[in-house]
Amino acid sequence: MAIEIEPLITENDRAVARANVRRSSRGSTLGGVFLVALTDAVASLLAVAFVPHLGTGPALAVAAFAVALTTPLLFGISRLATTRAIREGAASAANERRMVAEAHRREFETRLANELEMAEGEPEVLDTVERALAGTLPGARVEVLLADNSHAHLARMVVSSPDAEPPGCPVNSPDECPAARRSQVQRFDDSDALGVCPKLRGRPQGRCSAVCVPVSIMGRTVGVIHTTDAPNAVFDGARVQDLQTLANQAGARLGMLRIMAETQLQAATDGLTGLLNRRSLENKIRALRNEQTSFAFAMADLDHFKALNDAHGHETGDRALRLFAQTLRTLLRDDDLVGRYGGEEFAIVLPGATSRDAADALEHVRVTLPGHVRRAGLPDYTASFGVVEAAIGEDLEAVARRADAALFHAKRDGRDRIVVHSDHGMHEEHNGASQAAGNGHHPDRELADAATPHS
């Protein structure tokens, strides 16, 4: 796509200046004629006065000759003055045009920066980008492709088009995009020409021209603003600058939001397992309380974790914790909350669930865990669970104490089981005694080990 970079003084500037000179010189035409006539009269009088011996006729002839010599000079001077006036007028018009364009750019940058600064998340940033594109390139097909957090895949995040159809860039990763690889604006006049991006060819709309503006976040190119038009279409250079401004400011805001989100995530999650940390989990439970949402609460603990750590090393212990966390996330519902409470102890919150619902869900986790452990190549280990149903208005610490007491009973009664604490006392919902016997475990020995129940 040909990018129209306007010269300092354009033909339009000259045309405006010529029109202005014509308007201002309409009253001066008669003045010019009068000046010529006056020159003729003055020359005649001077000839008669200073050359009296020639007579009137020859004196008038001398005067006419003088007029013939001076008239072209006067018109030449007038033409030079007109040309200079046009040149100065054109320069003035060009300067005014540049001032208007610069004012437009500053206003666009300011408004865009203000709105992006108010955006609290990526969806709001992308909405601003879409509206800015519609105003910058009305009637054009434009799309914004951005990489995901892995920076390996591009996704179409914004489309601005009168028919809702995107330009259809097929690149799948930043490495496939020339603009992203080079971190430079790329302009292509004709998709069928030599030396253009091969991704422009073979599109349903046929031949096209294109402009691609890279989007960078924290110095790394992660996407592109892509627009197409008819082959050899002229694209206003000022609009390219607006696209660059949009790419730069949107990239900067997205980068800031991602850093903030990452920082918040690090502050809210456990570094080893990626689960919520204790503080974050308790904050979410308080939010459930404020919303008057009922929930079941469970404490989980890996059985004989200290022995596993001592026998196989802390790295194996860390792998065991991560695997258990992954198993919980995989098998529980998306809206269930899972957090690491400390050490090998985990807390699970199941909104809207009864204690029986929670016990059934955790039984699925309990019986699935051994298979995950074997596939991961880890030493065999199991988990015990204590489950309660939070009463309305019950203090969070009281809920946790009851769940911890149920977990204590699960450990004391042989581990690898689920114990529910209710108004009717403790009762066991599920256990792995038969499974443990089949695997060579000895429940009686584990009962003897229950002197240290949280192990």
Can you walk through the features of this model?
The protein has 455 residues and is of the alpha+beta class. The chain has 3 domains: 2-104, no CATH class; 122-266, 2-Layer Sandwich (Beta-Lactamase), CATH 3.30.450.40; 278-451, 2-Layer Sandwich (Alpha-Beta Plaits), CATH 3.30.70. It has helices at residues 11-25, 28-50, 56-118, 122-136, 178-182, 237-268, 278-290, 305-312, 314-331, 355-375, 396-412, 433-438, 443-448, and strands at 2-4, 141-147, 154-160, 186-188, 209-217, 220-229, 234-236, 295-302, 337-342, 345-351, 383-389, 417-422, 425-431. Strands 9-10-8-11-12-13 form a 6-stranded mixed β-sheet, sandwiched between helices. A 5-stranded antiparallel β-sheet has the order 3-2-6-5-4. The protein has a two-stranded parallel sheet with strand order 1-7. A hairpin with a 6-residue loop joins β2 (141-147) and β3. α4 (122-136) runs antiparallel to α6 (237-268). The model is unreliable at 1-7 and 434-453 (pLDDT under 50).
CATH class category label of the largest domain? Alpha Beta
- The strand order across the widest sheet is 9-10-8-11-12-13
Largest sheet: 6 strands, mixed
Helical residues, percent? 40-55%
- Secondary structure tally, helices: 13
Number of strands: 13
Beta-strand proportion: 15-25%
CATH topology of the largest domain: Alpha-Beta Plaits
What would CATH call the architecture of the largest domain?
Answer: 2-Layer Sandwich
Overall spatial form? elongated
Number of domains: 3
CATH superfamily of the largest domain: Reverse transcriptase/Diguanylate cyclase domain
